[in-house]
Design a protein that fits this description.
With about 425 residues, the protein is an alpha+beta fold. It folds into four domains: about 5-65; about 70-120, no CATH class; about 130-210, DNA polymerase, domain 1 (Orthogonal Bundle), CATH 1.10.150; about 235-405, Intergrase catalytic core (hpI Integrase, Chain A), CATH 1.10.443. About 50% of the residues lie in helices and about 10% in strands. The chain is built from 18 helices and seven strands. A four-stranded antiparallel sheet has the order 1-2-3-4, with helices on one face. α10 packs across α14. The longest helix has 23 residues, at about 45-65. It is elongated. It starts with a strand and ends in a 15-residue tail after the last helix. About 25% of the residues are buried.
């Protein structure tokens, strides 16, 4: 091997070796740093010489700094090296990580931050947001929640997962959530409030599942929105009389129970004729069929019994699988009455309260508390109007008249006694 070319500053040296290969000559710079022999290979001699001279300058600077180290500093270095040794990490990497963490934490001690992180995330499984959202939707479907609510949930969570794709639930802050909800300026306050409620339901499910720390309050601390009170729409007794005079075959029980018993539309869709006890005068809403998941009894008024008795069956669904939205608009158009969303339930609560003057009783029948009833369902009506409402009875040609109004949109017509 040819004699190496040596570069030295009196204390340190770098040796440059030349080797011949099939592709030509190569040059290897060899030197000692930190007690270890280091090597670096070059294809160009001039580049190898520049590196040797630069490395000599670096080694001279390091040697000078090492000579300037005091005894306490040297002892500190050796102690730190012993502490870090089991991890196998270079000491300078440990120092860089510590300084970066300290810059982020400010005055908060690093050890306190680590303890708090471990306490909050103990037992928390890191799951992608998209996966947790899909599992939540599947769990809600298994519970048998309303299809309309499922559609709203799916819409909100699809937007949520798209906005925060690639992030973990624990990393999402309250500020992130507020900015996301307010990003769409076309959304009304009630829409934002409902989206907030659905996100909090999702967060509670994630905590129980172990996907989110129990101490995380990012979702609960979201901003609340002032929702202006919506007008309470009801039908007058005269409008209801026109509507009941225009009902066709399969929608007749739907309108009658909706207006004279105040059930929710989804509760009527789940109702079976076995739940309608005409002899005892009650409609039984089982917990599985109620929105609030609480069993309740709704009284059957005399006029409701008159509408149901001729078309009642021993068992089977009160309604079939059909589009009630279309059926309702057909009846309204036929009767010449404007369609009012939720007006049947609002009307029942308003007229029933005027008739009984017992808010607690009406709230129990309707399936919510008195505060909600006064805020969202009650319109002030006179007792004589309530008497007129519950005195709307079918005509002499009922139920045969239902067959003449049969809707092509429905399924088989209701069973008519004597028809």
């Amino acid at each position: 091997m040819p004699t190496p070319q040596t570069f030295t500053n009196g204390r340190n040296e770098v040796k440059l070796y030349t080797t011949q290969g099939r592709s030509g000559a190569s040059y290897q710079a060899c030197y000692y740093a930190g007690g270890k022999r280091e090597r670096k290979t070059f294809a160009d001699l001039a580049e190898a010489r520049r590196f040797a001279r630069q490395k000599l300058n670096d080694l001279a600077t390091t040697t000078h700094e090492a000579e300037a180290v005091s005894t306490p500093e040297l002892e500190s270095y050796l102690a730190a090296k012993r502490i870090v040794a089991p991890s196998g990490l270079p000491l300078h990497n440990v120092c860089e990580t510590f300084m970066a963490a300290r810059e982020l934490l400010g005055d908060t001690p690093l050890l306190d931050a680590v303890r708090r992180y471990l306490r909050q995330n103990k037992g928390v499984e890191a799951v992608p947001i998209k996966q947790s959202a899909q599992e939540f939707l599947e769990a809600r479907e298994r519970m048998g929640v309303c299809w309309r609510y499922m559609a709203q949930l799916r819409c909100d969570l699809n937007r949520f997962t798209a906005a925060f794709a690639g992030r973990q639930l624990a990393d999402i802050t309250t500020r992130d959530l507020d900015e996301w909800i307010c990003r769409d300026t076309s959304r009304a306050q009630i829409t934002r409030t409902n989206a907030r409620q659905r996100l909090m339901t999702f967060a509670r499910w994630c905590r129980k599942r172990g996907y989110l720390a129990r101490e995380c309050r990012a979702f609960e601390d979201m901003a609340t929105y002032t929702v202006p009170p919506a007008p309470i729409l009801i039908y007058t007794p005269e409008e209801m009389r026109k509507l009941m005079g225009a009902v066709h075959d399969w929608v007749a029980p739907f309108f009658a129970i909706w207006g004279f018993a105040g059930l929710r539309s989804e509760e009527i869709r789940r109702l079976d004729w076995r739940d309608v006890s005409l002899d005892r005068g009650f409609i039984v809403i089982e917990a599985a069929k109620a929105k609030t998941k609480r069993r309740r009894l709704v009284p059957i008024s005399d006029n409701l019994a008159a509408w149901l008795r001729p078309i009642a069956r021993e068992s089977g669904p009160v309604l079939g699988l059909y589009n009630t939205h279309v059926g309702c608009h057909i009846v309204c158009k036929r009767a010449g009455v404007e369609w009012k969303r939720n007006a049947f339930r609002h009307s029942y609560v308003s007229y029933r309260l005027a008739l009984t003057s017992d808010a607690a009783k009406v709230a129990l029948e309707a399936g919510h508390d008195a505060q909600v009833m006064f805020a969202h369902y009650r319109e002030v009506v006179r007792p004589d109007q309530a008497q007129e409402w519950f005195n709307i009875f079918p005509g002499a040609d009922y139920p045969q008249c239902l067959l003449t109004r049969r809707s092509r949109k429905g399924r088989k017509p209701v069973k008519v006694k004597g028809g």
